[in-house]
Amino acid sequence: MSTPSPLSSIPSLSSPSTPSSLSSVVTRLRAAGCVFAEEEAELLRSAASSAADSAAALDALVERRVSGVPLEHVVGWAEFAGLRVAVGPGVFVPRRRTEFLVERAVAAARPGAVVLDLCCGSGAVGAAVAAALGTVELHAADVEPAAVHYARRNLGPAARVYEGDLYAPLPAHLKGRVDVLVANAPYVPTGEIPLLPPEARDHEPLVTLDGGADGLDVQRRVAAEAVRWLAPGGLLLMETSERQAVRSMALFAASGLVPRLAVCDERNATVVTGTRPGRGRVRSSPGSLPNGRPVDDPVRIRSRHP
Ligand SMILES: C[S@@+](CC[C@H](N)C(=O)[O-])C[C@H]1O[C@@H](n2cnc3c(N)ncnc32)[C@H](O)[C@@H]1O
Asked: What are the Methyltransferase small domain coordinates in residue numbering (predicted)?
């Protein structure tokens, strides 16, 4: 597929605002604890601007935001890897740190690759990989109907989006053909869910966050079956936390994959990659930097993003 059509680059907010109303919005947002109140006010104003009664629409959006609904759910989109990804209630909001997972996948894949975005949520990761590579055969899957709805919307008709538990809904013809399998599966240990910010805890479904007692339940299942779906030389890439990375790597190794680790300090992002042994179509060794230089584990990468 080429760049998914329903997604667009992030536009600049150029339409005029009403200073007095906007400053009262900023005040309300700030009182509710929004740190980036000015930026949020502009985004809310922009989201309300197409309504017939834009003042009433803005008021309603601000009301939802100050009640604690994530900004992205209020405006209906999230910025991710330069794309505008549609999101809404019931769907995980893609995090900026996950752009590192995209970068690692893009560094490994070639145009034309068969890409599988497992636990796809809104489809943000698959969409960004497809946009960067130009042409891929993209498949995505999630267990949540709301996620599947948004992934279909974001990825467009050229991608195949399946609903079900991990690999269960995938067509058999994908077995042994996947060049790049990306998975940002839930990895928060159950006991740490209460410590998450309220926006996540109260507004993102538990299934999007909860990784079980040690946080690795879903990762364990993804890794265990990956070898059956990967092409020879194919790559599994999973986001994890730095604290869990050694255990994630052990899961990969136990599943017959050759594990590597990459860490982006600036984005606090950790990605474990695992290669299915064999000659394949991926670009370079999984631990190599984007410039092709091979590195030892762990790979520490300075982010190119602020
Ligand atoms: C942390 S969110 C990541 C979503 C998306 N990949 C992203 O980065 O924005 C994890 C996703 O895994 C999905 N998920 C959890 N358990 C699953 C399972 N057993 N099978 C398929 N998807 C699952 C959730 O519905 C959720 O959309």
From this structure: 97-188
